[in-house]
Amino acid sequence: MTIYYSLTFVLLAAEMVTFCLLVAPFPYQVRKKLFKFLAESPVVAKIAYALKISFIFVAILFADALQRMFRVTAESDLAKSGQNDVRIETNLAARKFYSQRNTYLTGFTLFLSLVLTRTFYIIMDLIHTQEEYAKLKKAQSKGDDASKEIAELKKKLAEEQAKSRDFETLKKQSSQQAAEYDRLATDYNKATGSVSDKRKD
């Protein structure tokens, strides 16, 4: 395998390891810190930029390998229809195998790069959604606490209003009883002909 296909294989292996790390069941806080680091680190941004350039070269290699595979397949079909030389057939079969291997290697590398990118952004959206959900849940719990406090205050206000009404009723009854007592005392004094101490004062 030539050096550029060897580097493509190393890149494919690195992509597989990265994919396993992305989908690993880490706890929420660990995953949040990891993805925040990957999204905000300038070093990771430079590596991602270099990988984008390398994927352009892999795409060129993929196009070249695909063209070679079609050409070797056509030569193999032509050789099968013609002379049956074992050495030529073996040579063509080996060339066909290598061209297919190179096509699959570069194709899977490109495909996995797309999968990795999409998976990264999906997990980032998931983390963002979980953060928003936690904020809403916290705000809702604060709202529940506030509504409980409002209910308690309303209950206390109703109790105070009931006490105030009772006090007003008691005050009215007291004033009515005092007026009735004064009337009765006046009638009694008139009937007996005596003058009360109030009148003297």
Characteristic key phrases:
201 residues, rod-shaped, mainly alpha, 92% helix, 0% strand, 5 helices
Characterize the structure shown:
The protein is mainly alpha-helical and about 200 residues long. The chain has a domain at about 5-140. Helices cover about 90% and strands about 0% of the residues. The protein is rod-shaped.
Helix content: over 70%
Instruction: Tell me, briefly, the overall form.
Output: rod-shaped
Largest sheet: none
- Tally of alpha and pi helices: 5
- Low-pLDDT stretches are none
Termini Cα gap: 129 Å
What is the CA-atom radius of gyration, in angstroms? 46 Å
- Note the beta-strand portion: under 5%
Order of helices and strands: HHHHH
Structural class: mainly alpha
**DSSP strand count:** 0
Mean of all residue-level pLDDT scores: 82
What is the topological layout?
Blueprint: H1 3-23, H2 28-40, H3 42-81, H4 86-192, H5 197-200
Helix pairs in contact: 1-4, 2-4, 3-4
TL;DR of this structure?
It is built from 5 helices and no strands. With 201 residues, it is mainly alpha-helical.
